[in-house]
Backbone:
């Protein structure tokens, strides 16, 4: 990313950023104008013209009151998110007091680390993991430690590996991601249960990041079902992926109301704008349409994984809306050759592996065609 091109006016020394920030680059995948953007696990299907108009009307209604601060507690939105989760996962609807919402699950996680991490505290994750976790830790002066997931191509994570890592590090926070980014791997609930029980022994927090939860295969359960039994468990979700609402920035968590109250202490006042709340509530009211492409995306994901395996690639089994596979040749060369053909994917995960998001049928066909040339067998 180019540095800010503003002219230098003065000659005095610039202030020194704190340790860890000085010289660091802002996180983010390239935002390039390409025909087939398959690099950040977005939902490729935008809202219909009718739904876009309904969202616009909701924003206009909210605009009339924009001289006032928004509802700080967003209780209507939080209650409706709870109702959605009940329908999605078959759990009793969590009350608004058990749900918390913020600007993307990025902000939700940041707030959790602010409240439960901090100087002298440790958070544990399992590699390969989502790239932002160490940054939440850095920003909150929390130590970030890792253990490894199992070997490729399954990248499995079992009870033994998790409990051994918790015993070794005695972390204040453990982040388990299910389905995991970038591998797509979902977790067995016995792993979540074992981690929650072990952490409870020293009052540790377990965060299960289910950003891709709605894409899990049939029969794969959500950690939401474990919430009533484990007061130290938080399940984080987002409207960015299955809900096709990445641009609105709405993430949320479900947990014991005491955890939600603790997060409320560290949130900035009025963090969730009135427009965001109105847009998210309208999207929730139209969830049938927005979530309507999830089944198709799951089918396309399975077809994409099968196609890559047929070509002879190593492929990580995926419960998410992306597939991680091992390139035959240098992954950076393959990445660039795909980009030259209008297909943007992501060079992320273990050395040699590439991640491709599931797009429209047209995107997926373009990717397959481009890959024949970019990474010949
Ligand atoms: N968790 C995981 C595992 C992710 O991959 C992402 C986004 N790529 C997020 C959280 C953050 O999503 P958002 O802030 O858009 O809700």
Residues:
């Amino acid at each position: 990313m180019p540095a800010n091109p503003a002219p230098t006016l003065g000659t005095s020394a610039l202030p020194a950023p704190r340790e860890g920030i000085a010289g660091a680059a802002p996180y983010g995948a390239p935002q390039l104008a390409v025909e087939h953007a398959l690099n950040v696990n977005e939902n490729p299907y935008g809202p219909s013209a009718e739904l876009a108009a309904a969202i616009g009307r909701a924003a206009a209604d909210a605009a009339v009151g924009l001289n006032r601060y928004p509802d700080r507690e967003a209780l209507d939105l939080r209650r409706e998110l709870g109702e959605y989760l009940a329908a999605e996962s078959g759990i009793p609807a969590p009350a608004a007091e058990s749900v918390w919402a913020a600007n993307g699950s990025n902000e939700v996680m940041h707030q959790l680390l602010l409240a439960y991490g901090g100087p002298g505290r440790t958070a544990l994750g399992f590699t390969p993991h989502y790239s932002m976790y160490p940054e939440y830790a850095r920003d909150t002066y929390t130590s970030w430690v890792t253990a490894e997931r199992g070997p490729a191509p399954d990248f499995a994570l079992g009870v033994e590996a998790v409990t051994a890592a918790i015993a070794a590090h005695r972390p204040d926070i453990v982040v388990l991601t299910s389905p995991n980014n970038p591998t797509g791997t979902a977790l067995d609930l016995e792993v979540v249960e074992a981690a929650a029980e072990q952490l409870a022994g020293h009052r540790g927090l377990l965060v299960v990041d289910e950003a891709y939860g709605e894409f899990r295969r049939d029969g794969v359960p959500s950690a939401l079902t474990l919430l009533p039994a484990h007061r130290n468990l938080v399940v984080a979700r987002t409207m960015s992926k299955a809900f096709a609402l990445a641009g609105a920035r709405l993430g949320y968590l479900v947990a014991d109301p005491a955890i939600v109250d603790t997060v409320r202490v560290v949130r900035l006042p009025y963090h969730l704008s009135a427009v965001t709340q109105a847009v998210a509530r309208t999207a929730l009211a139209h969830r049938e349409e927005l979530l309507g492409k999830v089944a198709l995306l799951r089918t396309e994901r399975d077809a994409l994984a099968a196609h890559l395996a047929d070509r002879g690639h190593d492929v990580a089994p995926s419960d998410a809306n992306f597939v991680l596979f091992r390139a035959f040749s240098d992954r950076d060369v393959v990445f660039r050759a795909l980009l030259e053909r209008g297909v943007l994917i992501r060079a992320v995960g273990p050395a040699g592996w590439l991640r491709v998001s599931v797009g429209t049928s047209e995107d997926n066909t373009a990717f397959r065609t481009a890959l024949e040339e970019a990474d010949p067998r």
